[in-house]
Structure formats: structure tokens, C-alpha cells
Amino acid sequence: MIPIALLLTFSLASAQVEVLTSFSHYGNEYDAVVLKINQLNLDKFDILENNQSVPNDKFIESLSTDSLFFLINAFPFDSLCKPIGYYCTNHQVIKGVNDSDGNTNFFLKPNGLFLITDQDAVICESSDLNKYSNVRLGVQAGPMLVLNGKIHPKFNQASTNQNIRVGVGIFSDSTNTKYIVFCNSNAGVTFYQFAELFINKFNCSDALCLQSAGCILYYPFRPPQKRDYNGMICSYIYYRF
């Protein structure tokens, strides 16, 4: 595993989950949840829809009787709380890939997909969906932060466009064991800074921005001083420990 300080380690049979809190990278503070990619962990993922349109803090309270869990924004959504791009749950495609052009971050191509198949987890360009079969869960978001080990070519290192952001990346350790890492920034960062985190701290081959602004990464035993986003989030990627 990568040599960084961690808050908690959960060991469940062959599963390994690590929660990292308030660590610094180039002067910015982040939290992260790191999971080994194995069948036990993959089976614990789901997508929860906020069908009652309740604020984020109330939604989390509604799960308080559940076992330990973490939540992160699933995908960008429209004014009707519908996904802007690809969405698959329980092997059923609810919305296909959106390859149109637009002015929001989602349309800054290449954008990408986070997929959980029956046997693996994948981050890829949206145009590469046809390379993967047996997708159980999948979301489209954007932009890609890292693609094949390189930062998105349209990111500007001198940008001043800062926002709180959440994202997901995939990396392998020295034994070729694969991991998923979910991260959020605790203050505003640029896309370039966020991409650097996934490359330099975690050595991710691929990473995807799930959401900018209105972001949440909720994890077990989260310190009470952490401030939640209390607006409404339409859908969450959910993992139950």
C-alpha cells in the first residue's frame, strides 16, 4: 500500500479499506478512501438515489441505522435530478453515453466513465464504453483528470478556477494489486491541482472528476468538525463496509 498516514484501516476477510483524513498535498488539504479491487469490495458498491430530494445531512441521517458506509457524489445531474450522462445500475442502462458538446465541466472532453463490472473496476474515456461488458454499475462524469498517466491536456497549470471537487482514480502497487481511491478537496482547488494529487500522491493511471461544487465524501467516524455540504445531492456512490 502507498506510504501515507491513515486514519483507519478496515480488514474484512480479503478486503482492505483505508480512510485517510486531512492530508496535505502541495499546500491543499484532502480526504480519501482507498479500496482494494477484489470481488468482496466490488460487491459492496451501489448507487443510492435521493428520491425524496432531502438535503445531504438529512440523507446521511436516514442511513444512520445502517452499518458503516461511505458516500460520494455519483454524477452531474440536471434541474430535474436526472443524470446528464451515462448511468447504469443493477446491469440496467438508465441513460446512454452523452457525447454532445456544452459549456459546463462535464463537456470538457475527454470526459469519462467510472464502471464496476462483475469482476473489475474501470475508469475510461466515455467513447470506450463498448470495450467493457457485464457492467453492473456505471456513471459518466467529467472531465477526465488523468488519462493513461497524463494530466488532461486542456488543463491550465496557471488557472485560477478553484472549486471543491470530488473524484475517483485507479492505481496499482508494486505487486500489481489494483486499488480505487476516492478523494475530495477540503477547499477550492483547480482541475490541474486535483489531477496532480491523483498522479503524484497515488500514482493513478486514470482518474475522473465526479463533481465540482456541492461535493461530499462521507466516511466512517468522520471528525465532527468536518463541514458537510447541506444542499441536495441527487445520487450517491455508496459502499457498505
Helix content: under 10%
SS-based class: mainly beta
Q: Largest sheet, order of strands side by side? A: 1-2-3-14-13-15-11-12
Q: What share of the residues does DSSP label as strand, in percent? A: 35-45%
What's the N-to-C terminus distance? 19 Å
Tell me the radius of gyration: 16 Å
Shape: globular
Number of helices: 3
Question: What is the string of helix and strand elements?
Answer: EEEHEHEEEEEEEEEEHEEE
Residue windows where pLDDT falls under 50 for at least 5 positions: 1-6
The quaternary structure here is single chain
The pLDDT mean sits at 91
Number of domains: 1
The major beta sheet can be summarized as: 8 strands, antiparallel
What would you say this structure looks like, in words?
It is a single chain. The protein has 241 residues and is mainly β. It has one domain (8-240). 9% of the residues lie in helices and 40% in strands. The protein is built from three helices and 17 strands. It has helices at residues 39-42, 56-62, 191-201; strands spanning 8-12, 15-25, 28-36, 45-49, 69-73, 87-89, 92-95, 112-117, 121-125, 135-141, 144-147, 150-151, 165-172, 178-185, 206-212, 217-218, 235-240. The strands form three sheets. Strands 1-2-3-14-13-15-11-12 form an eight-stranded antiparallel sheet, with helices on one face. It has a five-stranded antiparallel sheet with strand order 7-6-10-8-9, with no helix packed on it. A hairpin with a 2-residue loop joins β1 (8-12) and β2. The radius of gyration is 16 Å and the shape is globular. The protein starts with 7 loop residues before the first strand and ends with a strand. The model is unreliable at 1-6 (pLDDT under 50).
